[in-house]
Amino acid sequence: MALEEPGVFVARLTTEELASALAAAGRCAVLVPVGAIEPHGPHLPLDTDLIISRAAAVRAVATLRGLDIAAFVAPDACYGVTECASDFAGAVSVPAPAVIGYLHGVAEGWLRAGFGHVCLVNNHLEPAHDGAVRAAVATIPGGRASVASPLTKRWARTLSEEFKRGACHAGEYETSIVLAASPADVREEFLGTMPDVDISLSENLKKGVARFREMGMDRGYAGAPGRATQGHGETMLQRLAEMIVGEITDALGA
């Protein structure tokens, strides 16, 4: 499914078009891409996590529609908890309570608008942010909301070795996905000169080291961006789409 295919992005529909689609649907779901504005090295844009969430959601829509679930992609929820990168330009962090309240309101809003299910698709994996995303829908009952996040162990196991090591902030994993989803946003001239930075964010966070610079990520990335390929990105996007479909179908009992 092409990123710009009509009918995928709910905000591009008219109210009558959406009402007609919902009236004809037995089951319906809206996917909200969640991320943050934060640094991703010299080669990826500040909205990298949103690019990933949005591209995975678009791919998931095709599969969900094949399962007779009327699925649409909502506008991005584009700010989050971004304290790890706080000493880099472009790290815009919002307190967790504000993120929880906002995302809860967004989810409830889409449910009131006629959708049967809301899935928050999160690819900004700072633990405090991911926890806030999950808390935002924890009190919504009856399988009406879910979170699709690679930090869920079930889905983490399906991703790349770099991801599993936790050395994956703007490394091969994320750079490959952006190459596949939005290649014009990758500053490819940097890739051949960037050394591997074998630093595990997850291990550092477990030790209480909470800032990128304290971890040794002086340019705001970890992993091996020079190894990124579009093919690897397509494979990872397909796995992320399967994650989204799995969370929604589990919630709906499909």
Question: What are the salient characteristics of this protein?
Answer:
254 residues; alpha/beta; four-stranded parallel sheet; 4 strands; globular
Describe the overall structure.
The protein is of the alpha/beta class and 254 residues long. The protein has one domain (10-252): Rossmann fold, CATH 3.40.50.10310. Helix content is 43%, strand content 9%. The chain has ten helices and four strands; from the N terminus they run H-E-H-E-H-E-H-E-H-H-H-H-H-H. The protein has a four-stranded parallel β-sheet, sandwiched between helices. Strand 3 (117-122), helix 4 and strand 4 (145-148) form a beta-alpha-beta unit. Helix 2 (48-66) packs across helix 7 (172-181), helix 3 runs parallel beside helix 4 (127-137) and helix 7 crosses helix 10 (230-252). The longest helix has 23 residues, at 230-252. It is globular and about 55 Å long. It starts with 14 loop residues before the first helix and ends with a helix. Mean pLDDT is 95; it is low at 1-6.
CA radius of gyration: 18 Å
Tertiary shape: globular
CATH architecture: 3-Layer(aba) Sandwich
Highest-level CATH class: Alpha Beta
Distance from first to last alpha carbon: 22 Å
Count of all domains: 1
CATH superfamily: Creatininase
- Beta-strand content estimate: 5-15%
Number of helices: 10
Structure, briefly:
The protein has 10 helices and 4 strands; from the N terminus they run H-E-H-E-H-E-H-E-H-H-H-H-H-H. The protein is an alpha/beta fold and 254 residues long.
Question: What topology does this entry show?
Answer:
Blueprint: H1 15-24, E1 27-34, H2 48-66, E2 69-73, H3 96-112, E3 117-122, H4 127-137, E4 145-148, H5 153-156, H6 161-165, H7 172-181, H8 201-206, H9 212-215, H10 230-252
